[in-house]
Write a structure and sequence with these properties.
The protein is mostly helical and about 140 residues long. The protein is about 90% helix and about 0% strand. Helix 1 runs antiparallel to helix 2 (about 60-139).
């Protein structure tokens, strides 16, 4: 029988940390995609203003730019949706690993309490024996 769950606890803690790091990376990627989408929308707005100010020059090319902008907006939204799915999966994995960690931690705590109770019982028995021996000597 194993002495304790300390090694398994460390292993599961490492796994939880790995899953959390992966989740953090995905959240960073989602934030970057949001920033890219915001910059893209700002760029589209600026191009629209330029095209409106010079309809004969820049305005004639705005249609092609707008079509490309729509494609890019769709690509960013698609990638964002894919990252959101990955985030949900990663969150589930973190929860599952954490659940596994908690099982071992609670088991170790119960084992520690049992050991403490056993030690306290043994100590009390020894003290009782010493007390009885002292009582017999004094009589």
């Amino acid at each position: 029988m194993i002495k304790g769950f300390h090694t398994l606890i460390r292993l599961h803690q490492w796994r939880v940390d790995e899953k959390r790091r992966a989740l953090g990376s995905l959240l960073g990627k989602a934030r970057d995609l949001e920033n890219a989408a915001a910059k893209h929308e700002e760029s589209v707005t600026n191009e629209r203003l330029v095209a409106a100010s010079d309809p004969a020059g820049a305005g004639r090319y705005y249609g092609a730019y707008a079509a490309a902008a729509v494609d890019k907006r769709y690509a960013l939204a698609t990638e964002r949706a894919e990252v959101e799915l990955e985030i949900l999966k990663a969150q589930d994995q973190v929860r599952e690993e954490f659940r596994g960690l908690k099982v071992f931690e609670l088991s170790q705590e119960a084992r520690d309490r049992e050991e403490e109770a056993e030690l306290a019982k043994d100590e009390q028995a020894t003290l009782d024996e010493i007390g009885l021996e002292n009582y017999r000597r004094h009589k």
